């Protein structure tokens, strides 16, 4: 009980609305887990943020159209774009959430602080919606501020009780582990030959930092499973992790031509489609073409193995796997339940759910209030899981020009944080 009291004192803000909650939780007969307390903390934080956001808008004269309140009220999340089924935080959460992964492969290049505001908001947004989840930051910088959690902001998160871990990697090592994994479907000879070219040849390529991150994220998900996020992605709700129907999943453009690998969920390790993507990336590697070894590798693999890509209306199904290789999908049609079998290793969902806007919309997102494009993007956020800021295109603009208060950019970067420091 003393440990519980210390935890409450450290993690729950002392506000009028929480005093009675704290007193009730301290009752000797009530068993309260750390998970439940952190979930309560997250819920309370959202309510406080909603109140503060409302007050801020009134004082700044911002448009009071209900948009910001809509996104901050945990019990009023709109229907998902992929399932059209209400998902709210009132529903029972899975007992164990997937591990989150972030890969930071670009070296510091002399910059003292390797974490931009987008990087920090990415990390914080994970803990904002999932206070008890494990977040692994994979980095190739063994001596930087990320090593040993030396970075003051990362250290602050750990001191608050969040399970944040930083792992150092070498791409050759993680590729070798992927080859040697039990039942691995990676071509060992092609992978070994590719690994031998990393030093010194490939490492000096212009886009190697991105190609390395593409390879490492695939290997990590194949080896460990979980949810991968680019370091410039900010979660805006909890659906990606908590909806059990969303798995083996990533965004895809509606015409089916392009995949979006900035956010992916593959809960179980050993996914056959991921193995095929790794093999495809190695076979068709071209370090001179941006995207060739990332999103395009998914597209090439999908064309090569179309039978492994789940139907677009997969979320209308009740998915009950019978075995690893032969899952069963039950569909409801005209009141009758029909059954058919399919091999399904990748579920694409509409790209707007993970990329509601592109870097071309930067002005409308960060520096405008009332343009037609602003309103269109704002509507898309109702059906999104997250926002991808695309650091490659926007990082320089962000460093030169501050985003406008009251903009969508301001909302996303200031609403889903736990440290909330600039």
Describe the fold and architecture.
It contains 16 helices and 12 strands. Helix 6 links the parallel strand 2 (134-139) and strand 3. It starts with a helix and ends in a 7-residue tail after the last helix. It has 422 residues and is α/β, with parallel strands linked by helices. It folds into 3 domains: 2-72, no CATH class; 100-307, Spore Coat Polysaccharide Biosynthesis Protein SpsA, Chain A, CATH 3.90.550.20; 311-344, no CATH class. It comes from Seminavis robusta. GO terms for molecular function: hexosyltransferase activity. It holds the Pfam family Gly_transf_sug. Belongs to the glycosyltransferase 32 family.
Q: How are the strands of the biggest sheet laid out side by side? A: 3-2-1-4-7-6-11
Helix content: 40-55%
What is the mean predicted local confidence, pLDDT?
Answer: 74
Structural class: alpha/beta
Low-confidence stretches: 2-34, 48-94, 315-339
- SSE string: HHHHEHEHEHHHEEHEEHHEEEEHHEHH
Based on the coordinates given, report the CATH architecture of the largest domain: Alpha-Beta Complex
Main sheet: strands, sense, barrel:
7 strands, mixed
Main location: Golgi
Subcellular location: Golgi apparatus membrane
Transmembrane segments: 7-26
GO biological process, one term: glycosphingolipid biosynthetic process
Defining traits:
single chain, 422 residues, alpha/beta, Spore Coat Polysaccharide Biosynthesis Protein SpsA, Chain A, 3 domains, three-stranded antiparallel β-sheet, 16 helices, disordered N terminus
């Amino acid at each position: 009980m003393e440990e519980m009291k210390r935890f409450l004192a450290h993690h729950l803000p002392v506000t009028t609305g929480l005093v009675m909650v704290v007193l009730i939780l301290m009752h000797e007969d009530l068993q309260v887990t750390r998970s439940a307390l952190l979930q309560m903390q997250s819920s309370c934080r959202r309510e406080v943020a909603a109140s503060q956001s409302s007050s801020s808008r009134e004082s700044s004269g911002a448009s009071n159209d209900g948009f910001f309140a809509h996104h901050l009220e945990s019990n009023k999340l709109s229907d998902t774009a992929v399932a059209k089924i209400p998902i709210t935080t009132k529903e029972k959460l899975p007992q164990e959430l997937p591990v989150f992964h972030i890969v930071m492969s670009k070296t510091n290049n002399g910059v003292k602080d390797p974490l931009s505001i987008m990087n920090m908001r990415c990390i914080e947004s994970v803990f904002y919606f999932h206070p008890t989840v494990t977040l692994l930051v994979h980095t190739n910088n063994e001596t930087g501020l990320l090593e040993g959690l030396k970075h003051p902001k990362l250290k602050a998160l750990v001191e608050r009780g969040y399970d944040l871990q930083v792992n150092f990697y070498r791409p050759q090592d993680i590729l070798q582990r992927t080859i040697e994994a039990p039942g691995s479907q990676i071509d060992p000879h092609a992978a070994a030959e590719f690994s031998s070219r990393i030093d010194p040849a490939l490492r000096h390529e212009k886009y190697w930092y991105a190609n390395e991150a593409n390879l490492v994220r695939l290997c990590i998900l194949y080896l460990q499973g979980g949810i991968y996020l680019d370091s410039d992605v900010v979660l805006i709700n909890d659906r990606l992790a908590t909806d059990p129907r969303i798995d083996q999943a990533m965004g895809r453009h509606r015409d089916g031509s392009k995949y979006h690998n900035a956010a992916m969920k593959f809960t179980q390790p050993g996914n056959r489609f991921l193995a095929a993507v790794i093999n495809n990336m190695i076979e068709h590697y071209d370090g001179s073409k941006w995207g060739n070894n990332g999103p395009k590798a998914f597209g090439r693999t999908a064309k090569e193995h179309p039978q492994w890509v789940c139907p677009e209306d997969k979320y209308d199904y009740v998915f009950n796997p019978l075995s690893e290789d032969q899952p069963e999908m039950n569909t409801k049609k005209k009141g009758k339940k029909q059954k058919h079998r399919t091999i399904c290793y990748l579920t694409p969902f509409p790209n707007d759910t993970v990329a509601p806007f592109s870097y071309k919309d930067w002005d409308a997102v960060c520096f405008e209030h009332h343009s037609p494009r602003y309103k269109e993007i704002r509507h898309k956020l109702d059906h999104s899981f997250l926002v991808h800021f695309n650091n490659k295109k926007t990082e320089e603009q962000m460093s030169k020009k501050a985003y406008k208060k009251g903009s969508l950019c301001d909302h996303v970067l200031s609403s889903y944080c736990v440290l909330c420091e600039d």
